[in-house]
Amino acid sequence: MNSMNDPRLVAGPASGQTSHTHRLGGLVAAGFIATLAAMVATTLAAALAQAAGVDFEVPDGGEAIPLSGFAVVTGFFSVVGIVIAAALLRWSARPAERFMWTALSSEE
Question: What pTM was computed for the model?
Answer without folding.
Answer: 0.73
